[in-house]
């Protein structure tokens, strides 16, 4: 297979999203296949525990590979987790040529998919057919379900409260504070230098955003300010984001096994492309699901006893709200609605930096 084509496909694959935009994947190139791996040098954060979230992100990259390959008339066949002794080897992706293959409808969307953290238009209704079509698209993957909670449902207020509390806890945790500021890029110059991490402009925090984040860059200062309600500012901001949205969705896998998180990533990326294609915006609201994974795998070793109790109760409440079974895995919780385009987009490192020699 032509290496220029492989590079072109990888260039599209890396537009897949990742937690804090740390881009923790890499590729090994062969004549007829690609090995997709997790990059161990970028896997030290809270959300990387158990590798489930990195597997989800890798699955999103596989979906982009599948879409991009069609442009060059190739099909792919992923062999998931082929080496049980190496959990960082996510998939071996084999290419086969198909001269009759047409370019996927999502190909032109690959570098346009975006997280939109703006406030949405709470008055512009989403047609019922949109929810039905997305549910159907999710059902093609056996055992997966896309569940909705509409903004006009009384239970939606419960979800708003849960998401707000989760964001408050995020700003009351020393490890999460440290990791946030290790990934936050407080200027466009810094973002252009690293081409990873969270560009402050993508947070849609307005002109005072950089000042606010510089104010709380010190954990000691934030801990003091939290006594006067600073963490509740972030709680209320998340609540307002949810209030502005028309609906919340949760993509659910049949289990929390690694393979289901990879498949869930593929499916979620496909849904995200479709959502953006029809002019809707999406923002993952992943704090609580990630906290639930951490509680499951580590019993909340990075949380205070009070936070453990709060998060356990919130997790139970979220599961009850969507009628989830204990064995099911939450792939992504997100809000959706109509909105103006985001002010900025996350950057990607050069494609060469993803290729492992």
UniProtKB/TrEMBL annotation:
Gene3D superfamilies: NADH Oxidase
GO molecular function terms attached to this record: oxidoreductase activity
Annotated InterPro entries: Nitroreductase-like
Name of the molecule in the record: Nitroreductase domain-containing protein
């Amino acid at each position: 297979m032509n290496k220029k084509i492989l590079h072109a496909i990888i260039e599209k694959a890396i537009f897949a999203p990742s937690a804090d935009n740390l881009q923790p994947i890499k590729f090994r190139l062969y004549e007829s296949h690609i090995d997709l791996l997790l990059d161990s040098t970028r896997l030290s954060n809270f959300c990387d525990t158990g590798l489930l979230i990195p597997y989800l992100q890798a699955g999103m990259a596989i979906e982009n590979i599948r879409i991009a390959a069609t442009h060059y008339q190739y099909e792919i066949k992923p062999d998931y987790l082929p080496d049980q002794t190496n959990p960082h080897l996510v998939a071996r992706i084999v290419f086969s040529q198909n001269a009759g293959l047409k370019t996927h409808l999502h190909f032109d969307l690959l570098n346009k998919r975006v997280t939109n953290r703006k406030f949405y238009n709470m008055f512009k209704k989403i047609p019922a057919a949109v929810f039905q079509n997305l549910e159907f698209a999710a059902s093609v993957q056996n055992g997966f379900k896309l569940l909705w909670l509409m903004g006009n449902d009384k239970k939606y207020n419960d979800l708003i409260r849960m998401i707000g509390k989760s964001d408050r806890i995020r700003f009351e945790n020393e490890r999460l504070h440290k990791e946030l500021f290790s990934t936050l890029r407080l200027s466009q110059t810094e973002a252009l230098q690293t081409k990873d991490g969270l560009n402050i402009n993508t947070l849609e925090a307005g002109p005072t955003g950089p000042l606010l984040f510089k104010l709380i860059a010190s954990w000691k200062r934030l801990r003091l300010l939290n006594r006067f309600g600073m963490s509740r500012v972030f709680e209320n901001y998340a609540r307002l984001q949810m209030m502005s949205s028309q609906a919340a969705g949760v993509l659910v896998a049949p289990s929390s096994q690694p393979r289901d998180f990879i498949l869930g990533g593929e499916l979620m990326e496909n849904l995200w492309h479709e959502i953006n294609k029809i002019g809707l915006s999406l923002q993952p609201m992943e704090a609580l699901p990630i906290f639930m994974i951490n509680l499951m795998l580590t019993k909340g070793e990075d949380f205070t006893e009070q936070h453990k109790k709060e998060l356990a109760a919130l997790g139970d409440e979220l599961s009850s709200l969507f009628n989830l079974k204990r064995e099911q895995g939450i792939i992504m919780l997100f809000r959706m609605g109509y909105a103006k385009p985001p002010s900025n987009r996350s950057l990607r490192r050069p494609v060469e930096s993803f290729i492992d020699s």
